[in-house]
Write a structure and sequence with these properties.
The structure holds two protein chains of two kinds.
Chain A (H helix, E strand, L loop, with lengths): L1 E4 L2 E5 L6 E4 L2 H10 L11 E4 L2 E7 L2 E6 L4 H8 L5 E4 L4 E7 L3 H6 L16 E6 L2 E9 L2 E7 L3 H21 L1
Antiparallel strand pairs in A: 1-2, 2-8, 3-6, 3-7, 4-5, 5-6, 8-11, 9-10, 10-11
Chain B lengths: L2 E4 L3 E4 L4 E5 L11 H9 L7 E7 L7 E7 L5 E6 L12
Antiparallel strand pairs in B: 1-2, 3-4, 4-5, 5-6
Classes of the chains: A alpha+beta, B mainly beta.
The complex binds zinc ion.
Chain lengths: ~170, ~90
């Protein structure tokens, strides 16, 4: 973790397995069951089971972050139902943004309301961070898992640092 | 900036969306006349008033949906899923 301003640290996340499942209710149900979940999470919510996490990014779409052991079971669980299962592990890079000012830094790049009441813990969505498509997942009150396509990584990291610099400046002058 | 209410994600800023033109235009069968095909491709109502139009939440859930927007005021009157009938909204400024 690198502190980018007082009250916020940024870290690159290690490589992880990422899969996109697209399909109707039966496919999303099967994918959720293979992770040990009772049902897929509702829109814009994350559910985690023993087999990993399912992130509901669209009405017919889940991003799955499976444990290594659960990865193989997913193909078998989905085989009987029409679906699309695409591995995107290397397409994305992940960042961890943590600290009391983390939400303020995201708000500097995105018009979403990051107040805890409107963007609670366990909420996830795709949105724009400045000009780049990004996924924002609130994993804790003061911590966010941010993902962008790999080629946008350096740009988004630079933008996060730029906003943090502005916050540092205002901390000095207040 | 317009506030657009995606039927799947709720209200979001306009920058997350892509405009998709007039809604409820059915694609004709492939064997129609060239005149009918060109009408399908190019002829639109250019409505002054409440227009049904397609939007796509391209930087969000990725889904297409329909909206009723007054072209005179930019005021939205309804948002509804693709395949649903056009809601009954009177022309009102
Ligand atoms: Zn949406």
């Amino acid at each position: 973790m690198v502190e980018i301003t007082e009250g916020c640290a940024l870290a690159g996340l290690p490589p992880m397995v990422r899969l996109v499942v697209q399909g109707r209710v039966a496919a999303l149900d099967a994918a959720a069951a293979s992770l040990g979940l009772e049902a897929p999470p509702p829109m814009l919510r994350v559910a985690s089971g023993i087999g990993g996490s399912a992130l509901r990014l669209g009405p017919f779409e889940l991003l799955i972050l499976p444990t290594w052991e659960a990865r193989a079971g997913l193909d078998a669980a989905l085989a009987p139902v029409p679906h699309s299962l695409v591995e995107v592990s290397d397409r994305n890079v992940g960042f961890l943004l943590e600290g009391a000012r983390a939400a303020d830094i995201l708000a500097g790049l995105c018009p979403l309301d990051f107040a805890l009441s409107s963007f609670p813990v366990g909420m996830v969505t795709r949105t724009l961070l400045d000009k780049a498509d990004a996924m924002v997942w609130r994993t804790d009150a003061h911590s966010f898992h941010v993902e962008v396509w790999r080629s946008f990584g350096p740009y988004v990291e630079a933008q996060l640092r730029e906003v943090a610099k502005g916050i540092s400046f205002s901390l000095l002058t207040v | 900036m317009l506030l657009i209410d995606c039927p799947y994600c709720g209200p979001r800023a306009e920058i997350e969306f892509a405009y998709g033109g007039e809604a409820h235009i059915a694609r004709p069968a492939a064997d129609v006349s060239e005149a009918e095909w060109s009408a399908f491709l190019y002829l639109r109502d250019n409505t002054k008033g409440v227009l049904a139009e397609r939007w796509r939440h391209s930087h969000g859930c990725g889904r297409f949906f329909n909206a009723l927007r007054d072209t005179r005021t930019d005021q939205f009157h309804a948002f509804y899923e693709i395949g649903m009938p056009r809601p009954d909204v009177r022309d009102a400024v």
